[in-house]
Design a protein that fits this description.
about 300 residues, alpha/beta, seven-stranded mixed sheet, 12 helices, about 10% strand
């Protein structure tokens, strides 16, 4: 092939499965560079991956977000394939995710588990509900139709990888990548992939409630950052509705007797109206800043294209 492919595998204590994952991708993509980024594993996962033929890079800051930040910063390629090291994906399905990137009509390809076997294969309680909730919130808030927000099987273009500012430290990183691509109007493609539950003895590192709350927090944080006018606009509407609801009885009483006996209620309603006005003003200001940042992003991505021609 005339294009350079990098397979990126984040790994933390996956000694039971990492050898199989590395060998499968080396077989399917013999010209690709297989990288395993070992995140302080204590079970020898890094050594097993290296013996299996992978290029192993240590990452000492704990967390999947930190791992992906290292991957994206250090590795140069024309196309990137990211897959988990827990052998929950069919390698042939995931390898096919590269085609839209290599052909130039997608900058991020999502391996869609939820349209296939995920809900029957996944045995962890509340994970199915959590995936549905995250998908619903992202699609409502960002006006999209993405079918699988949190999948770990993805392919990326050079442009996406080198212009993605990693903010997350943990498992919310997949949600952040999806929202970033939606906000920057990047070309997104989704391909259904087969999902299978972890093999017996392999333990998930995902904490359902702790990491679930972190994902929800990330969604609303990025909604505030990427859609400030909508975020602060809704706060403004709520404040104005509450202010009007409190003001109307006071005003009716004033019209009836010519006095305002409930001054505390009047003061609260005026305060809520002021908060609503300030919120709307903040949204307008931040939306202007966001528009400027979007223009700068386009300029930077053009520079990235030129750098790619020189580096690869």
């Amino acid at each position: 092939m005339d294009k350079r492919i990098a397979v990126l595998i984040p790994c933390y204590n996956e000694a039971l499965t990492i050898k199989k994952v590395v060998i499968e991708y080396k077989s399917l993509l013999p010209d690709a560079d297989i990288y395993v980024f070992d995140n302080n594993s204590t079970d020898g996962s890094g050594d097993i991956a290296q013996e299996s033929g992978a290029l192993v890079r240590p990452v000492y800051r704990q967390g999947k977000g930190f791992v992906i930040a290292e991957m994206f910063r250090d590795i140069d390629a024309d196309a990137y394939l990211m897959v988990d090291g827990d052998d929950t994906y069919n390698a042939e399905d995931v390898a096919a995710l590269l085609n839209p990137v290599l052909d130039g009509y997608a900058e991020m390809v999502i391996g869609d588990r939820l349209s296939g076997t995920y809900f029957t294969e996944n045995k962890r309680p509340f994970h199915n509900t959590g995936n549905r909730l995250v998908r619903f919130l992202v699609n409502i808030l960002f006006k999209s139709r993405v079918r699988d927000i949190m999948t770990g099987a993805r392919a990326f273009s050079y442009r996406f990888v080198k212009n993605f500012p990693v903010l997350s430290s943990g498992f919310e990183i997949e949600t952040e990548m999806t929202i970033h691509a939606l906000d920057k109007k990047m070309l997104i493609s989704e391909k259904p992939v087969e999902y299978r539950d972890r093999p017996s003895g392999s333990i998930s590192k995902l904490n359902t409630f702790r990491d679930g709350f972190r994902v929800l927090k990330m969604i609303f944080t990025l909604f505030k950052d990427y859609r400030p006018l909508s975020f602060f606009g809704w706060i403004s509407v709520i404040m104005f509705i509450a202010a009007i609801g409190l003001f109307i009885p006071v005003f009716i009483e004033y019209l009836r007797i010519g006095l305002v006996p409930r001054f505390p209620t009047l003061i609260v309603s005026v305060g809520l109206a002021i908060i609503g006005l300030l919120s709307f003003a903040c949204g307008c200001i931040l939306d202007t800043i966001k528009s400027y940042n979007d223009r700068m992003f386009l300029i930077l991505t053009d520079m990235t294209r030129r750098e790619k021609a020189q580096r690869i």
